[in-house]
Amino acid sequence: MNNKLLRQVQMLQLDILKEFVKICENYHLQYFLDGGTLLGAVRHKGFIPWDDDLDVAMPRKDYDRFCRIASKSLPDDLFFQDFHTDIHYPNAYAKIRKKGTIFTELISQNCKMKDGIFIDIFPYDNYPEQRIKQIWQGSQIEFCKHILICKERVYPWLGMKKIKLILKMAEYFPFYFLAVFFKRGWIVNKYEKLLKLYNKEKCNYLKEPDLRYGKVVIPTDSLNKFINLEFEGEMFQCPEGYDKLLYRLYGDYMKLPPKNERGNWHHIKKVQV
């Protein structure tokens, strides 16, 4: 993707973000910029120049409410995508996609889910304190995740270098056989319950469901207060404790990565705006 096309994609993502924020403000829902988008706001006051997606997050209770109202609240040119609005969608977080566009990732090119330029919306759930609970919850969540990915013909190893490719293929290979024996509805129901399992307990950390269980874990108190930060000339909500959050995710986050680690993080195969 050349720089001009990337910028067009980013501006469409920004438009989607604005529509998302309108709904959050109308219904008094808490949201915040997350991941690379939060890093972009802090370090660049906008998109990381080579970033090809946009991430926001919500506390679980706000996320669940947003999911219930999104489809009827979004403009007609946007599609809300989660387990329940797209029967081939394999992820435990939501997307809002721009209808009439194409944005195909290499790993999901054979998946039948609806396509299009999107923003990601992540729910944050409690991460239990006890190691035994982490192992118990994590093993079941990873099982559900692997089964759904395999049922929907997503191939996570594509785009990896040789050693990682072999290891990733070995990790997923058994699940392509196991997936035949599980109904999608049962797995989705179990998956959603597992993610929320410890939300009534007091925990010092929160997790999001995208990467391997426990890889993205942030201190609960980093979401105690929110401030507005500039992102592409607009102001959006961000955690006041963003330093603690970003340091945990990226280490020395103000330092730019080497040039060979920039660009096409998600191995985008086809784009049409």
Would you mind describing this structure in some detail?
This protein is of the alpha+beta class and 273 residues long. The chain has helices spanning 3-26, 35-44, 60-73, 131-151, 162-178, 184-195, 242-250, and strands spanning 32-33, 55-59, 78-81, 94-98, 102-105, 118-127, 205-207, 217-219, 226-231, 234-239, 268-272. Strands 1, 2, 3, 4, 6, 7 and 8 form a seven-stranded mixed β-sheet that branches. A two-stranded antiparallel sheet has the order 5-11. Strand 9 and strand 10 form a beta hairpin. Helix 4 runs antiparallel to helix 6 (184-195). The radius of gyration is 18 Å and the shape is globular. The mean pLDDT is 93.
Poorly predicted segments: none
Q: What's the shape?
A: globular
- N to C succession of SSEs: HEHEHEEEEHHHEEEEHE
Q: Give the overall average pLDDT.
A: 93
Q: Largest sheet, if any? A: 7 strands, mixed
Question: Any chance you could write out the topology, listing elements then pairs?
Answer:
Elements (H helix, E strand, L loop, with lengths): L2 H24 L5 E2 L1 H10 L10 E5 H14 L4 E4 L12 E5 L3 E4 L12 E10 L3 H21 L10 H17 L5 H12 L9 E3 L9 E3 L6 E6 L2 E6 L2 H9 L17 E5 L1
Parallel strand pairs: 2-6
Antiparallel strand pairs: 1-2, 3-4, 4-6, 5-11, 6-7, 7-8, 9-10
How would you describe this structure in keywords?
about 270 residues; about 40% helix; alpha+beta; single chain; two-stranded antiparallel ribbon; seven-stranded mixed beta sheet; globular
